[in-house]
């Protein structure tokens, strides 16, 4: 008690307050940087290391259902038990291997489809008049603000055996029996192209918009026909947009869970769905973690390419 | 270069001998309500360096783009070398264009940029290499052929653009503000280079510019454009010394313009009475006695002499120095006339101003005068 | 542009827009279908709307989702803005590359990976420090902040680079200290980006199913989780009704935003005309 009373509290408090203010004023840059930085380190990066750790553990009947990697033995020696069984299991089990291949096949094909349809749409918007342009751009962005889940759901009603498309085709007399569309790979393609198309169109639009029209005119002036101009001038110069858009579709589509689950049903195996089910139903966390790590390794290169382009784009701006 | 006949030097004067390379007849271009080019006619002959001069929005670039095939005509026709261009797309026209922004393909090297046009014509590969090499040598860029446009200076880019347009040996080269992006010093130097290159290759040039000095230096003939119409077409000297309207007199160079009334109209002279003095002109002019007319005087054609007494008489008037601007090579004097008008007068600074006493300075009483051949009469 | 390509482009654009909007329009139409079987037309009816409103489950899910979305949007905007400022205005600092990488990665990271890693993280954290004792509101919100702040940061970065540094330099030239420049110039200038960043984070949170499914606990059902559990088994007319309401809400918000923006533009234009008239 005497210790406390020895200090003049009012003075120390006052100087402490103003000192704080001065601290904040002189170190605010560091504070600003540190808060989001640590948030991401803590909630984004650290969790990946835990997943990596679990992928190297064994299944245990416990909660959580995996063995500890690092154990303190009685003698105080740390033992580290690394088990690569999970990865071997994924490699040897054709179910997982085929699922990875199938996921990549579906995401690559959908990316190409998005590009084939998105490119002319983006080009058409760039070529539109000053009034139509913002409206069209808006029309492309608008679906993005509505629920992803409901956009996928809307196709269930269209593609079902008793759905709108089949009903229409039967009413028109084109078919007698409904065509099976829902719960097929076809439905998954439709779903991915439908929901990810804006991610392709917007970066394409951004690069095309920057393109100087006099380059097209110069090519024409030098004797180049429109098709040739497209392949020699427009296409190479819009490559950054093509790469950005393709990665924005390809990377999330590879790990897609909702679309294969709702539109593919049990018939289309994609790795995101296997991962989710492994986790929630089988509760085999080490294997699920290993599945996630492998998926991450598959996607790490495209993600780094995307980051590289993202960084280059923001430097050029 | 030998001038064999007057018509060879000035084909536009000879009506019969030569067919014009470019014939523009009654061409009109409208954007909605705005008329960019308004019913213009123009003939341009083989080997000319023709300048279209005018302010922004006067229609000069639109006319150039119509020649290149980037804009459709609302009415009229364009004929190049006897062929009507109405349904010929840009990529099939015998013209090439040098763009104001140069429009160099950023993903191709200098060499590839220049070769692009030849590849379109399916010129054999070895031929392309030769022609690219020759043209790059002409514009002194052989050492830069592997570079991308980003790695070049403004002047080098300009020369690549020129080489790319010239390498196809077009019948007509269109240049849209070819020097606008260069800084002043480089621009002056390049003006002469451009004229030299044109002389060497013998291709007909049409240059669009807003810079009158550029037009005067470059062109064999020029057209002054305003509001979609030609105000006057002629050689630089004709346009400068014999402008047909106040617009042209004022747009090209500067001029002191004032009103007067014609008092005498002879075969070899004209007299005009103005508010402050009588103007005598020693050559004939088609005017009516008693009609209102404008007189224009170039500032460099006026002399200033110190004089305390008032003078009146033909082509001279008393004045007071109102202001002086020192520009280095010349000085500009603002002189106030008895009626309150202010005239610009320029004098070359032929000597260094060491003796302050001899100098004309502020508030000095002076008289200004000019030769009887100097004043220009303008009807509109 | 050249004739035939122009027609081709127009056709592609029209098909694209039809592809985007026809499924949504049909979704709305079928929400007024009386029949229990979604694609079989049984006459116009508001039956599914009344059923929807009588379901306490739906109301709970809506309430939970909105709470998470608001808290998430606010925190994500704050953190994303700080991150954007650090990236664009503070030049080089140690760990910038790692920081930049962590800011961009959530934009493309498959949701299953993010969700799984956050779940195991929360469980490990619980073992270590006893928190979070149970998963739900807090864990979902933290997970949402983590990925939405990346989107906000991108928006803020674009705005910061777009607006340049002239105003900030002018303020500094007039004697404002760096902290004052930040609060008096930079932040007010950022307002449009802050608003759009907040709305983006809000929408992302309302929209998320996968990550929330991983990190939620028993009983804490967000709206997407509820919808998903119902439509997994097939078409549900009450979900059509719910979808229609959500589309309507978004349409109203968008319309308000458009009107505000239009008014603002017109006011700016009138101001400018007025100023010019006074000058003349």
What radius of gyration of chain C results from the CA coordinates? 24 Å
* CATH architecture label name of the largest domain in chain B: 3-Layer(aba) Sandwich
E-strand count of chain C: 0
Order of helices and strands of chain B: HEEEHEEEHHHEHEHEEHHEEEEEEEEEEE
**Structural class category of chain B:** alpha+beta
User: Approximately what portion of the residues of chain B adopt beta-strand conformation?
Assistant: 25-35%
Query: Which pair of protein chains has the largest interface, and what are the residue counts?
Result: A-C, 86 and 92 residues
**What fold name stands as the CATH topology of chain C?**
MetI-like fold
Report the span from N to C terminus of chain C: 41 Å
Oligomeric state of the chains in view: heterotrimer
CATH H-tier superfamily of the largest domain in chain B: P-loop containing nucleotide triphosphate hydrolases
CATH fold-level topology of the largest domain in chain B: Rossmann fold
Terminal CA distance of chain B: 40 Å
CATH class categorisation of chain C: Mainly Alpha
Described by the principal axes of the CA atoms, the overall outline of chain C is globular
Number of domains of chain B: 2
Number of strands of chain B: 21
Largest sheet of chain B: 6 strands, mixed
Membrane topology (chain C): Multi-pass membrane protein
Subcellular location (chain C): Cell membrane
Domain ABC transmembrane type-1 (chain C): 62-260
InterPro entries (chain C): Bact_Polyamine_Transport (IPR051789), MetI-like (IPR000515), MetI-like_sf (IPR035906)
